[in-house]
Amino acid sequence: MELNQYLEVFIEESKEHLQACNEQLLELEKNPEDLTIINEIFRSAHTLKGMSATMGYEDLASLTHQMENVLDAIRNSRLKTSPELLDVIFLAVDHLEEMVQSIATGGDGKMDVSEAVAKLKLIEMGEHPQTHANAEAAATIAVEAPLLSNYDEFELTVLKQSKEQGFGVYEISIGLREDCLLKAARVYMVFEVLEQIGEVIKANPSVEQLEEEQFDSEFSVTIVSKENQDDIKGKIMKVSEVVKTNVRSLELDDFKALTNDLEALVIEQNENTAEMVRIEHSVEAEVLPAAEKKNNSKTNSSKTIRVNIERLDILMNLFEELVIDRGRLEQISKELENTELTETVERMSRISGDLQNIILNMRMVQVETVFNRFPRMIRQLARDLNKKINLEIVGAETELDRTVIDEIGDPLVHLLRNSVDHGVESPEERRAKGKSEEGTVVLRAFHSGNHVFIEIEDDGAGISREKVLKKAVSKGIVSEQAAPAMTDKQVYELILSSGFSTAEKISDISGRGVGLDVVKNTIESLGGSISIDSKENAGTIFSIQLPLTLSIISVMLVEIQKEKFAIPLSSIIETAIIKDTDILKAHNQKVIDFRGKVVPLLFLKEIFEVPSEPQDDQFHSVIIVRKGDKMAGLVVDSFIGQQEVVLKSLGNYLTNVFAISGATILGDGQVALIVDCNALIK
pLDDT tens for residues 607-663? Predict the structure, then answer.
């Protein structure tokens, strides 16, 4: 059977099972006696083992097989859950994730998992996996254990028959000096010795790989011989630059166990093959013509299909072109004033609007896909820093555009690391302050208007205003004269400056003198913003505001002289016409009274330096925009109207244009610049 057609399904399902393992292991750590959780993990590991074996990924199958053995021992009360045991299983899951990622990027999924397998074997035998003596034992077990992936059915038959006829069957691990220059020559000399005393049945790595020196310093061989272990070892050790030889005799019981495992795997492969064929038939059934579906569909079962994100990107790009052409058609229909054309264009606009909603919803992904990896990360950080951290996740079902999801992961990692390392105090410090020993970090997501907010809140030490100002002055970020007049919020946001760090010593967790400017730049490149609020000894909140989608936005088109600009509707509170006499002055800044609040006025023709002739206008068109709790009035020449436009980047040459976030092509072919209200308010 051609397995490549199932590769994508295998990768996706493997990732889902590994994510389930991570989540359930974290739960198991909290409830070590809960057999339901262990059964869930066992089920995921068992399924992954079967799929891996079916697809031919031996290292994956080998490691999951050993992990499954340990889990089986736990659920049958032969082993007890402990932090050390969970650390080793987490390590195994990390290796599995690396192998699946290797397969996803076109690799072969091969990896040296002998150390992880050995540790799991030690645990299964009831030994502690991390002492020095056991570490050496683990290395020996890694060599000595006859792995299922080492032999095929033919080789097992040959070895078993040789044993029955009185020959000795030996697995031999040979180690060369680390600085050995002619490894292939030494291997050849070892094989010369082995062929004089018996017959080589198998080499690992293969003979071809050994000849091409595609190994580090160790390799293993399986031979059939009449000589005893000590004689074999003595003859091999005489070869120059061989520094280690372990010889293990295989007994008949080993072959019985291996044969049973092989038979079990063959059965499991058959079951998985049957399952994949069933899936294939199911998918074929889903795409039968609509007429056949109509005759047979009385069930309400939900049907889903996996679609590559690249195809959705292509679909989105095509639809963006359609939106531009739709705007052009609307413009033409207005100019021609043809009733039939106007009706057709209106109908097309409605249909394309529905189509737009469907396409955008197809691209929406729950932030849970990003949040899922953080509990495991926080657990490891807490252990590394000797802190007690409780991570609470709220609103994981909130949806965001796939493009934003792909970019937001790294900034969140940096902020969470920062909260755990710099924010939450050690258990001793927290006790001294009258707090509980366990610190809390809350990761929260929610919708508000056309934006998604992601907040990271901790109940740690908070940000020290004095410490931040002292560092900012020493770095030349602010002057000594300006520092006292700054508000708390302005001071806190100084930590987002390039190269800023209040860490007294640089750690691998966060800091490194890089600061949070990378986080800020990434979020702003997505059309979002970040703000900070903090109280000393009470905690800190990082609040990230992100657009729901990056490609199609609703705007208010305005005109300044003969140039057109677009202002995102998500930033606009309302529009107004004001008299010249309504404009006041405060601190040399033109302001207006907007519903009892003093709002500064910004004349866009001055900010964007639009060439214009002097005018003595008595009335001004103003758009009131808001960012958080700050507002501003943008003065334009006239309003054109609302429109949905496609947001296009200005390109690499125009990345630093002030207060312009992109551009769009209008229906008449003109380019309109899109105003970044956040930059103007700031």
Answer: 888 887 777 678 889 999 987 678 899 999 999 988 878 777 777 677 678 888 888
Pairing state between β 660-665 and 563-568: unpaired
Distance of CA 656 to the CA centre of its chain: 29
Name the 3-class secondary structure at 553. Answer: strand
d(CA 593, CA 59): 71
**Is the Cβ–Cβ distance between 510 and 418 less than 8 Å?**
yes
Residues in the chain: 682
143, 226, 310, 595 from 204: Cα distances, Å:
11, 22, 40, 80
DSSP string for residues in 222-286: EEEESS-HHHHHHHHHTSTTEEEEEEEEPPHHHHHHHHHHHHHHHHHHHHHHHHHHHHHHHHHHH
Q: Quick one: which of 251, 199, 204, 203 has its CA closest to 225? A: 199
pTM of the entire predicted model: 0.55
Say how far apart CA 439 and CA 538 lie, in whole Å.
11
Q: What value, to the nearest 5°, has the Cα angle with vertex 504 and ends 502 and 509?
A: 80
Q: Please list, in sequence order, all residues whose beta carbon lies within 8 angstroms of the beta carbon of residue 247, skipping any fewer than 6 positions away.
A: 170, 171, 172, 229, 232, 233
Please tell me the distance from the alpha carbon of residue 139 to that of residue 145, in angstroms, as a whole number: 10
Please state, in angstroms and rounded to a whole number, the distance separating the CA atoms of residues 8 and 283: 14
pLDDT cut 70: percent of the chain above it? 83
- The rounded distance, in Å, linking the Cα atoms of 177 and 186 is 10
CA neighbor of 411 nearest in space, from 296, 299, 315, 528: 528
DSSP 8-class letter at 648: B
3-state secondary structure of 180: coil
- Cβ burial of 96 (10 Å; 0-12, 13-18, 19+) is buried
Show which residues are catalytic. Answer: 46, 68, 418
Kindly give the interhelix angle for 517-525 and 402-418, rounded to the nearest 10 degrees.
160
Task: Quote the CA–CA distance of 292 and 35 in Å, as a whole number.
Answer: 46
CB 663 within 8 A of CB 671: yes
User: What tokens were used for 407?
Assistant: 């970019």
Q: Which whole-number Å values give the CA distances from 651 to 14, 663, 666, in the listed order?
A: 38, 10, 18
Q: How far apart are CA 387 and CA 467, in angstroms?
A: 23
